[in-house]
Amino acid sequence: MSSTINRRNWIKSSAFMAGGLAFFSGTIGKLAAMPARVFKLQSRVLTDQEAVTNAGFELKARLLANENPFGPSAAAKKAIQDAIDKSYQYPFMTQGTLYNKIAQYEGINYNNILMESGSSPLLLAAAIHYSKGGKSIITGDPSYDDLPSHAQQLEGKWIKVPLTADYKLDLDAMEAKVDDNTGLVYVCNPNNPTATILDTAKLKAFCERVSKKTTVFVDEAYIDYLPDPQASTMISTVKAGSNVIVARTFSKLYGFAGLRCGYVIAQPDTIKTLSMYTTGFSLAATTIAGAIAAYREEEFLKDALQKTLASKEYLYSVLKKEGYEYIPSSANFVMFPLKMDGKKFVSEMMKRGVGVRNWQFNGKDWCRVSIGRMDEMEAFADAFKQLS
Q: What DSSP letter does each residue of 308-332 carry, written as one string?
């Protein structure tokens, strides 16, 4: 027991020097106290992961997981390489540096942040906590289903609200579903898989109203693809004291999907609650070093965004030429309605070395194409023209 206490105190002291990350002090204790229902959860393979696994490695164009094929940046790669020599050390200090860097940029405190190896563990933490006692999770349909599907596997109920006519989340209809049994409202903005964006003022008003009744979780995984992310984020509602959780990830525009780094921003009490379902210390030293170098590396982000937009415009032109409509995209993927069975389309594209995803909603089969390098988009075009 004494060794555990000494280790805990040392972690607390180190974290304080790095930026006052006091929640590290409870990492070991949290593992022991973590609710038993966490360990009863059956592992769920996400559909994007499933698609990648089924595709294998012989793809000309990997356009099925919304990854950024242009990253990570050169600075991030160098930082990762440099961090290897000291990777035998626990990265308590450097993780504190990353927390502080984010806190300073966003104008918040370190205790408003909880970081994990990607946003997925944090979505799971929210699913576990906010589904307790059979509480309901309200989402759009379709929308990213990681959080609500995990909640449904536990005790929770999943309430799906159809999208509007222009394929956006229907905030009014979602708000109308809120009742005494609502555990959380999940808003993915920009939305996956439709890549549509909500009006910022309307979403902010929604968050301010609904958060007085229940927790609002805003997943901003794709917000860096917007022209002005700072103007569209809901972090301002957290700073104003609202019961809102905002999720961010390095997996998209930063190009860290395989390096795994994500975080949530919320009220300190909410951070403490969610931290009970995480270790709070799962990031590798190399990932932390890369994230510190990459965070708000504006020239790289601008370049990656411009390349994404160029590939997206090319995709639009291909679809138009072949007589297909599409949903205008505010992210790094595009969804369009198919003229054949979705599963068959995906299979035929895969035979041609192109991996894409399919959905079915509104009585139609749809394809979601992730934006890749220009050579990948050209491979998509060649295969698509054979089937269109």
A: HHHHHHHHHHHHHHTT---BPPSSS
Percent with pLDDT over 90 in the chain: 83
Write the pLDDT tens digit of every residue in 158-198: 999 999 999 999 999 999 999 999 999 999 999 999 999 99
pTM for the structure as a whole: 0.88
> DSSP class of residue 352?
T
* Residue 256 · residue 11 · CB < 8 Å: no
From CA 141, how far away is CA 215, in angstroms rounded? 19
Among 3.30.230.10, 3.40.640.10, 3.60.150.10, 3.90.1150.10, name the CATH number for the domain at 48-69+298-385: 3.90.1150.10
Coil, strand or helix at 132: helix
Residues 6+ apart with CB under 8 A from 283: 91, 95, 115, 116, 117, 260, 261, 291
CA distance 249 to 226: 14
Amino acid identity for residue 274 in this structure: L
Q: Which fold has domain 74-294?
A: Aspartate Aminotransferase; domain 2 (3.40.640)
Strand ranges in the chain using DSSP code E only, listed in sequence order: 61-62, 113-116, 136-141, 157-162, 182-188, 215-219, 244-249, 262-265, 333-337, 354-355, 357-361, 364-370
